Every structure is written in structure tokens, then in C-alpha cells.
Amino acid sequence: MKESTGKQGLRVGEVSTKKRKWYSLIDKVWAYSNLEQAFYDVKKNRGAHGVDNVTIKEYELELEHNLRVLQQSLHVKTYRAKPVRRVYIPKPDGTQRPLGIPTVGDRVLQAAVKRKLEPIYEEKFLSCSFGFRPNRSAHMAIEKIRKDLLDGYTFVIDADIKTYFDSIPHKKLMELIREEMVDSSVLALIEQFLTSGVLENGLVYESHSGSPQGGVISPLLANIYLHPLDEMMSDRGHRITRYADDFVICCKSQKGAERVLKSVKKLLEGELGLVVHPTKTTIVDNLSEPFTFLGYTFKGGYFHMPSDKAIKKFKEKVKVITRKNQTVDLAELIKHRLNPVIRGWGRYFGMGFCKSLFKLLDSWIRRRLRMVQLRSWRKIKKLHKELRRKDWKGELPGLRMTKWRSSLSTPVHVALPIEKFRELRLVFLLDIYQDLHP
After folding, report:
1. DSSP structure class, residue 83
2. Cα separation, 146 vs 330, whole angstroms
3. How many angstroms separate the Cα of 81 from the Cα of each of 52, 63, 183, 253?
4. For residue 414, is pLDDT > 80?
5. Using one digit for the tens of pLDDT, what is the confidence trace for 94-121?
6. Best label site of 65, 244, 310, 353, fewest CB within 10 Å?
7. pLDDT at 366
8. 138-190 pLDDT per residue, tens
9. Bigger pLDDT: 423 or 15?
């Protein structure tokens, strides 16, 4: 049966044909309802202002006017993407990751284009890709790797593409997009997003390659560009798991892994113009060597748990929240600042083998909170008052309220027992683990 022209645009060929050209999509992009929903997608993700200094809140004050102006600029083809604002965020290894922050208006249009492109490419993308896709998650990627390891594919290619988002060649990316998309107006918009330039230290630099991290559409474009890798690995029966630019390939033998890595390098470096990181890309026998992926460390061909780096980063966050030199209401600190961090980290890493770790971290967090409470009480008579309420027997203790070792003493544990933190609604990592492993 031939396809008909409908709301999704005009296609050519049979329904079952793999190569499908999309000729008319721009009218779906600039539809007001699509632009409006795109704005709320941008608002939900929050984010800072771009080079025009207009915040999401300010843009929303005249939302209909701003969207109508954007819509009209698309109609008459006067829209021009503004340069992205360069910012840097620190990486765990001490280096900095460059981000490009588009203006709110540009982010809205990127989201509008993404809303129409994503369903098209979701029909094409393979099940081995998990990053930045609807109804797919990092946990699903972790489970796939565990299944591959349990099936005996324990020789693992742990690969890393050097500065991937900054290295994507625009010409080759557009060639891949044109395999599905023929609408020249949409293609022109995507090219504008890619070549809008970067504003840094008052100067605008041209963009000759890359899709800046920070752009709404960048993750989709990144998935499109690495789709040939997914296809090649899947066609050859190799077990690849990819999350954006991070991927591992599980193999049966060392020699097999070496052959696969050669073919991967040939595709990525030869055909796609990327660079496989020479020192961060390794082959490990997971029965004897661990590897880390998406924050989890895998070892023994079976076990997975939070990596040392993930644990260190979590503890650093908790330390900042529970620093000693503050006078606070403990219940408010727990509810508004600490619980969200514990809950998010615990639910992400609670899928692993981490019961003992979670128990230790719970104990450490409570000790941190006991120290905060001692510092907030300041005077020891408040501790004595709490002990008398607990029917403390014997002489009331004398201890330093600002010393870390005091938080481990018996009187402080009596004054602030585990039950007290239950009353304060502190989230326990062990509870999260038990919920995830009933």
C-alpha cells in the first residue's frame, strides 16, 4: 500500500522501505502549538541566558509575542541563529568541559525542530543505543552490559572518542541527515545551529566543526552521527552498548576484541573523521580487570557497583551541604538540600551490588548531621537537656561541641539516635536499596 500525505509530512515509497525521504516538515516545525510546547520543554530543562542576556523567565513574560516573531522570521526566511555563549564546567580529572549556551529563542527553535525530527530517527535508531532517547535510560544500558557479560562476552572494548561533540564534521553530519530529510528549510536551520559561532571573551569565533554541548538538538545530532557505528556492529553480530559518545563492545576473546577495535577505528577515524582516544580506549578481560561505564564499575564478569569516582563526588556534595560551620534548622537542611542529593544518587546507583556500601554511607551521613546539630546547638547545656529527655543515666558528659570526634561519642548517639533522623524524614540509602531489591 502506498503512503499518503498526512500530518507527518510527505514520504516517497512503500511503508516498509528503509530509505524514506521527508520532503515537507518546516510547516510542522513553525506551527504555533509546536513552538509553544518547545518553549515549555526548554523551560522544564531550565538553563542560563545566551548572548542576548534574555532569561527564560523574561522570555515567558511576552511568550506569545516572542513565539509569533520567531514564527514570522521562519515564514519569511529571515531567522538567523545567534552565536552560543561559551562557558566552562570543571571535569573530575581537573580539566574543563566547554559548553555552548544558545539564546532562549534559539533553544526554543532547536527544541521545535527536535520534536519533529526525533520520531523520524527513532524509527531508524537501533536498540543498542540508549543515550538521550525517549523511553531509554542509563539503567537499561547497564542491564544490557550485565547480560552480555553473563553470556560469556567478558573481553570488553572500553572506548572513548576524543572531544566528540567538538569534532563532528559538519559536512558528513549533513550528508547523514539528508539520507532521511530532504526539506531544504529544515536542513538550512540545522546548518545554522551548527555554524552559528561561539562568543568568548567578547569575540565571536566561527564554528567549522562540532555540535556544541548545551544545545537542545546536539544530543540528537550526536546520535545520528554515530548511528553508522551501531549499524556496522549490529550487522556483524557484535554486542555494542552505546550511550551518546560513550560505548563498550563485549567480545568472546582477546583476539576477537582486537579485530573489532580495528574495524571500529577504521570507521570512526577513516569514514567519520573522529579520533579514538589512544590512552582511554582499552581492551580488558573483565574476569580479572574492572572497567567503568556510566559511573558504574564492572568486575568479575558479574558485579557492578558505584565507581570510586562516583562515590568521591557524592561525598564531596554531602560535605558541602553538611559543613560544620553553619547554624541551621536540621529538618530544613535535610528536606530541602540533603534529601534530593541522597535520593537522586541512591536511585541511580542502587541497582548495583552496593548494600554494604550504602549502609556505610548512611552511617557517615548521620555522623555529619550529628556534627551539624552540635555546631548549631553551640552550648553543651542544650546537649545535656536532650540527654535528660532521653533519661540519660549517670553524670552528664563534657565534650567539645565543635570537634569532629565528638559526633562519634555515645552521649551524642543517645541524644541523636537513628530514630531521630527517621523523624526528620532523612532519606536512607539502605531503604532505597531495599526498595529496588525487594
Report:
1. P
2. 40
3. 12, 19, 18, 49
4. yes
5. 677 888 999 999 999 999 999 999 999 9
6. 65
7. 97
8. 999 999 999 999 999 999 999 999 989 989 999 999 999 998 888 999 999 99
9. 423
φ/ψ bin of 425: left (φ > 0), alpha (ψ from -120 to 50), beta (otherwise): left
Report field, pTM of the whole predicted structure over 0.85: yes
Phi, psi of 264 (to 5 degrees): -65, -45
The number of angstroms, rounded, from the C-alpha of 202 to the middle of its chain's C-alpha atoms is: 30
pLDDT for the residue 9: 42
Give the model's pLDDT for residue 428.
Answer: 98
Q: How many CB atoms lie within 10 A of CB 262?
A: 10
pLDDT at 235 over 80: yes
DSSP notation for 34-74: HHHHHHHHHHHH-----TT---HHHHHHTHHHHHHHHHHHH
Q: In what order do the strands lie in the sheet with 303-306?
A: 291-293, 296-299, 303-306
Q: Provide the grid cell at 56.
A: 527564560
CB of 251 closer than 8 Å to CB of 260: yes
| Angle separating helix axes 104-122 and 184-195, nearest 10 degrees | 130
* Mean pLDDT for all residues in the chain: 91
| Grid cell for residue 165 | 561533540
Helix/strand number for the chain, H first, E second: 19, 11
Residue with cell 527536535: 114
391-429 residues labelled b (16+ CB within 10 A) or e (exposed) = ebeeeebeeebeeeebbeeebbebbbeeebbeebebbbb
CA distance 32 to 27: 10
Single-letter residue type at 150: L
pLDDT at 218: 94
Residues linked to residue 276 through DSSP beta bridges, in sequence order: 161
Torsion, Cα of 387, 390, 395, 401 (10° steps): -20
Give the torsion sign (CA, 185, 189, 194, 195). positive
In the prediction, which pLDDT does 1 show?
36
Which of 129, 176, 190, 184 is closest to 273 using CA atoms?
176
Would you call 425 helix, strand, or coil by DSSP?
A: coil
